[in-house]
Amino acid sequence: MLDEVHPGLSAQRGQNSYVLGKIAGHNIVVAVLPEIGNNAAAVVATQLLNDFPAVRFALLVGIGGGVPDLSNNIDIRLGDIVVSKPTNTVGGVVQYDLRKETVNGFERSGTLDKPPAVLRAAVQQLVARHEMEGSQVLFYLSQMVTKFPKMKEKYSHPGAGDDQLFETHYDHKGGRTCAGCDSAYEVSRLPRRSTGPEIHYGTIVSANRVLKNAAEREKLKSGNLGIMCMEMEAAGLMDSFPSLVIRGICDYADSHKNRKWQPYAAAVAAGYMKELLSIIPPWEVTRRSHASGVVQIRQAGEQKSTKELDKECIECLKTLSSTGTSNRYNNIPNSHKTTCKWIMGRDAAGFPEWRENGQGIFWIEGKPGSGKSVLLKYLLSEARRHAKAPQSVAGFFFNRYGFPLEHYMEGMIRSLLAQLLRPFPASFPFILNLLKQKLSPSEGAQFPGPIRWSRSDLQQALISVIGTISATQRALLILDALDDCDDLVCDTFNFLKEFINQNSTQEANIEICVTSRPGGARVASLTYGMVLQLEQHIAEDISTYVTSSIARLNIVFLWLTLVNETLRKDFAAGDSLSELRRTLSTTPSGPSDLYRHTLGRVDERYEGETKTMFLTVLTAKL
């Protein structure tokens, strides 16, 4: 399938065997596995990264067992292709330990990270093209056998007559073929118009042994994960590579397994790989992070503690630290234990749906004092508390009246960088290079030295960090009071849009939630995301808070009636949640004190009339 074959390596590197070449302008390293199994794949992948540190991602191309599900119109046949497809719950490949069985089936022991954004986008583009024009896989196979005629016999389609799917309970009757098997137990399927491969997208199971049992296959299929294929190598890449798995179907993972379809299945998988690479511009790949850097992120996040960080990484974090950038966050009161939860409801604000889709910016608008900051502090806390790997979370709260960096874009970027780097700073050598090259100390000084960050340097650093993280993780950024930034809202927002565009494609790996006063989204010309008007959702929170505060005071009904009327009028007049809290906190808890408090608020102009009314009432009672 290579368009060009390059000279081999001048010296042996480890135990790996490589073929070098080019496909559609991409430099390709083909590493051949010495044997089947996850362990072999892991060893080969690790050695490959050492030998070729500039590799961006892996395409795991080979054969697998198909998992048809005719009841759900999933008609997978021998010679078809299955491509790993991530969902909301799995990254496209799940690992099962077929030696350990539980009451619910086999033990699931892991999940492969979803493919890089550039591959996911290319797959979606290819799906759309195939709907209009069909696949080019057979064309590439034709090219292959034309160029190498001796391959034709072995790698041609074996014929639909040799594609037999038997009922689950019917086992193979022996022999290298199914000639001795009873065709009465064969599952009836309509003939296809073409012998060309159908392409399916779904979950692939990576197991630790060969599966030759239809009953076990059906047991795995019943897990509602959309399983379409079973194989034995992909899990070996779980900690080694950002990757996409492409499998040609050579059997049905049952006792009728044989080798006849394996060459053709491998060839069509390679053909799909070539077609996929043909629609990805080479420059789109070269600007992506190296796979070795992505692996270091995972390893550092799991193995490195702050005490183990080398001196340069610690100094890097020090250059990003700034006085007071977390003051605003620390001074925001925590939400009441039963408030703010509405935003997590699916029938309310659309926030959970936005997080699942991962598309654009979620913009919350609200009047001053309406509880925007309290809500965002709650969201940040919940995101950190419930974050499921792989995910990074960072937040910044602008403060117009705080330290200088609290109300400028530079402060925001410094804070976000420090939060994103801190869990695994040793895994970002390019940040250190940026410090040494672009932010060099005074002439002749050695790093670390007095470093001055410019806005453009900070922006480029954040774009690079987010780009590396988003290759394997989702990144959630929470930004409060965007209109308190002394830079123009539209300027700050344009930067946010820029690094979303630079670091994601059709399936965004970056989510940004921001707040501002009413009109902020309009000023920023938001066209890609959602806008939530906070006032439409906080009435219940206000009621909950007031009710809880009143309950703690253990007051009488008369007091409740009087204060409730005051709060109702203030709310109708436009008082914010913070103003209502202030009114409630300064209101006396007893009726007698409340009366004194009420009389003390009477305007001097009406004191005479007030005394006359009270005297009239008292005289009437006498």
Write the layout of secondary structure elements.
Blueprint: E1 4-5, E2 18-23, E3 26-31, H1 38-51, E4 58-66, E5 81-84, E6 93-102, E7 105-112, H2 117-133, H3 137-147, H4 152-155, E8 199-207, H5 214-221, E9 227-231, E10 243-251, H6 262-278, H7 282-286, H8 291-303, H9 311-320, H10 327-331, H11 351-357, E11 361-365, H12 372-386, E12 391-397, H13 409-421, H14 429-437, H15 455-469, E13 474-480, H16 489-503, E14 510-516, H17 520-523, E15 529-533, H18 539-553, H19 557-572, H20 577-585, H21 591-600, H22 607-621
Summarize the structure.
This protein is an alpha/beta fold and 622 residues long. The protein has 22 helices and 15 strands.
